[in-house]
Specification:
Helices cover 32% and strands 20% of the residues. By secondary structure, the chain is an alpha/beta fold. The chain folds into three domains: 2-248, no CATH class; 252-447, Glycogen Phosphorylase B (Rossmann fold), CATH 3.40.50; 468-682, Vaccinia Virus protein VP39 (Rossmann fold). The protein has an eight-stranded mixed beta sheet, sandwiched between helices. The chain is elongated, with a radius of gyration of 32 Å.
């Protein structure tokens, strides 16, 4: 993984995405909100844009000189993750290459299995944490085949995460420019919570506890030697030999509309249908067009009962050749085609992965990669041309254009050496084998929309962020205060609620004052304010208003830690990130209420400062005050301020059976002469 920063702001506006990158203002400081992870294509596009801007500013620069411009000249600073490992909030790297868990810096593990020990160490380093967030950097590679095999392996990784961590969720971080089809492949899997398509800042990256890094996977150790799915398992720190072969087969989805559309095209074509797919994503692995047409013709001659389907134009006219090249125009339709035919002959490894997903008999023609690279597909045969190991691109998935020009004739001869008769024979063997497998497990799901993580619990009348954990005192306070307030608060009254970590209390209070009273919620955290507003709206409680504001005496604006809804948060804290945001501040006195029955204050609102900002309201309207959970020190400040307004206070433990180190407090105007059962009266001097 690399991390970069810029000396000036840069905005990228491409067909795929738009993103503004902020420059560092202090080159000598680690401004983590302006350091970016290199994920996807952003850095390359930034460099290209800066090169173009340099040429405009220096008209004499030719193309060769432009390409030779150094990063320093362009104002780009590039570093490795090692430079940030000392920052205490940087996540722990997991897998074959780890950080923080063994020695200093990055450490390469040679043991067969390392992930369980890493997870135990990660758990021990955060004993109070109940939910861990894991990132997968650069996805599993950007290609569709990489994503298919990567998510297959990651299901085993996720099972390991779940065994050693009390709660875990995983995000796939691709960065801008990744193909939508690649994101779609991994988004469906239940082991994935989010798929992110923007480069995170280092500050944003601190939301994670650990990460796996798949940057530049083709350059990683063992990538060319291990079977593909085994490499993903190995790189994540598991022993591939400990995973059963059947667990290394693909599972996934195809969108139902694509499946139905392709099915409607094929259903009028009776008989055995075989897809011939001679084109791969790189010329190195693509059958030359003239050889492909001869190959297809020979297949049709060898099997008079077969109908041959092609998804790309081919120079052949035949009554049993079905050309769907104008109709198979999306990756999803291609997947559906692979699943709906009776057999498949392909040079495209992605087609082989989909064939396994759909249990479609297949023959994979491999010009550079050994057939043993995909050994776990029982209904797929791999054929390598004789002598392919001695060719210059052996083991590679692609080469540069200038290299291809020099070696293309060699591979032309290789493709000519493959026997259509052998291919057809192997395919027929696999088709017979598939027919005999009556109880083949279902690995394909037809879906409508891809499920995405939601921060709303749709089964609850009230809304709460998925990753927000209510502390025990808040859970009890919600029930206890709702009971107490309803005894005192009259229907038709005005009630002010400051801080609403659980929307259910707001709903209870709004129901109590409805329809002629009013509930005013003052919640500075925008996401929680919207959550409360949504709950009140869904409950039909329109005699209420929600204000996204702090409510303490003093300045018109205050700062607080930002809240990330996808990261673990506690209801007793303003935020869960290291980013500081400015929020508006409005006191209760600023509301200029003519009447008020109750003021309800929950942590983490500063109780004393809240009451200081409500002094005029207390003196004018004489509302009851309900506070909690509040610490002993904070309560003392609140009592001192409230005493000036002529109030007395009663307290009980915030949790039944505990002491008064954390308490629920009721403030009463002295002239009311109220006595609170089960509460202790507080002596304020």
């Amino acid at each position: 993984m690399h991390i970069f920063s810029l000396s000036k702001d840069v905005t990228l506006d491409t067909k795929a995405f738009r993103r503004h990158f902020q420059a560092v203002t202090d080159p000598d400081a680690a401004q983590v909100d302006r350091l970016y992870l290199e994920v996807g294509c952003e850095l390359r596009l930034i460099i290209e844009k800066l090169q173009d801007e340099y040429v405009l500013a220096h008209p004499g620069t030719d193309e060769a000189a432009k390409q030779m411009l150094s990063l320093d000249v362009l104002g780009v600073k590039l570093g490795g993750e090692e430079s940030l490992l000392a920052w205490p909030f940087f996540p722990t790297r997991l897998g074959r290459m780890s950080s923080r868990l063994v020695g200093e810096g990055l450490y390469f593990h040679k043991e067969a299995e390392v992930l369980p020990a890493q997870l135990q160490a990660l758990r021990a380093s955060k004993p109070d944490k109940q939910h861990f967030r894991i990132a997968v950097i650069n996805g599993f590679g950007a290609n569709l085949g990489d994503c298919t095999m990567g998510i297959t392996a990651f299901r085993q990784v996720q099972s390991c995460l779940a065994r050693y961590l009390p709660g875990v969720s995983c995000d796939i971080v691709f960065g801008g420019g990744v193909a939508a089809a690649a994101a779609d492949i991994v988004a469906f899997d239940k082991s994935v919570e989010r798929v992110l398509l923007q480069t995170p800042t280092v500050c944003e990256f601190a939301q994670y506890d650990g990460y796996f890094d798949f940057s530049s996977i083709t350059d990683m150790p063992e990538y060319e030697t291990l079977p593909a799915v085994d490499w993903y398992l190995w790189w994540c720190g598991l022993d591939p030999q400990a995973v059963r072969p059947e667990e290394k087969r693909n599972r996934g989805h195809i969108r139902r509309n694509a499946w139905n559309e392709v099915h409607s095209v094929l259903r009028d074509e009776p008989g055995k249908k075989v897809l011939f797919n001679p084109k791969a994503s790189a010329q190195l692995r693509t059958m030359p067009p003239e050889i492909a047409s001869k190959f297809a013709k020979r297949l049709l001659e060898l099997d008079p009962e077969m109908k041959l389907i092609v998804d790309q134009p081919i120079d052949l006219v035949h009554k049993r050749l079905i050309d769907l090249s104008g109709q198979i125009n999306t990756p999803e339709k291609f997947k559906a085609l692979c699943g709906l035919v009776d057999g498949l002959i392909t040079v495209n490894s992605f087609a082989s992965h989909v064939a396994d997903l759909c249990s479609t008999p297949a023959v994979h023609l491999c010009s550079t990669i050994a057939g043993s690279h995909y050994p776990y597909y029982p209904f797929s045969a791999a054929i390598n041309p004789q002598g392919y190991e001695q060719l210059p691109a052996f083991g590679k998935v692609k080469v540069e254009d200038d290299v291809w020009e020099k070696i293309s004739s060699l591979y032309h001869n290789v493709w000519e050496s493959i026997s259509p008769a052998e291919v057809l024979s192997r395919l027929q063997e696999k088709m017979v084998q598939r027919q005999a497998a009556a109880h083949e497990p279902k690995r394909l799901s037809l879906v409508g929309d891809i499920n995405t993580a939601s921060c709303v619990d749709s089964n609850d009348a009230t809304r709460r962020l998925v990753r927000q954990r209510l502390i025990a005192e808040h859970v009890h306070a919600t029930e206890r205060l709702a009971h107490l307030i309803q005894q005192i608060l009259k229907p038709g009254s005005v009630c002010v609620l400051a801080c609403a970590p659980d929307a259910s209390l707001a709903v209870t209070l709004a129901k109590r004052v409805a329809p002629h009273g009013e509930l005013i919620v003052m919640e500075p955290r925008a996401l929680l304010a919207r959550s409360v507003e949504s709950s009140l709206f869904n409950a039909g409680l329109f005699a209420s208003r929600v204000m996204q504001t702090m409510a303490v005496g003093g300045a018109k604006k205050v700062t607080m830690r930002a809240l990330d809804p996808w990261t673990e948060s506690r209801s007793s804290e303003w935020g869960n990130t290291h980013q500081v945001v400015t929020v508006p501040n409005q006191t209760v006195d600023d509301l200029a209420l003519t009447s008020c029955g109750s003021l309800v204050v929950q942590s983490p609102m500063p109780f004393g400062q809240f009451i200081a900002g409500a002094m005029q309201t207390l003196k004018r309207c004489r509302p009851f005050i309900f506070m909690g959970p509040v610490s002993r020190d904070e309560a003392a400040n609140a009592f001192t301020v409230g005493l000036e307004a002529g109030y007395e206070f009663w307290a009980e433990a915030a949790l039944p059976g505990n002491d008064l180190s954390s308490m629920l407090v009721v403030g009463c105007p002295k002239e009311k002469g109220v006595k609170m059962d089960r509460f202790l009266k507080v002596n304020v001097t």
